[in-house]
User: What shape does this take?
Amino acid sequence: MRAFRFLIKVCFICNLCSLGSLWFLVTEQSGDLNTFDRHIVVMGMVIAAPLNILAILWLLVLLLRKKLVWKDAHPILFVFNCIVLLFQLGFFP
Assistant: This one.
């Protein structure tokens, strides 16, 4: 369960980077990004969506096998990750 909790927190950080990438995309600042901003874009556009899908599937498996209680799964972070996943699938190619 500790690995799942860690994964949810990493997904949260990647989703924040995803929102930052979306902001860069909307404000069209993609031409002049420094190194830190490029890392945000990579984490947001490349890593976040597959990691979100992995975390959602893992949670569903844990809940169906009754190895995890919904309350222990950081439900607020999980719901936030699901909402951001919908944005990722809608805005990013």
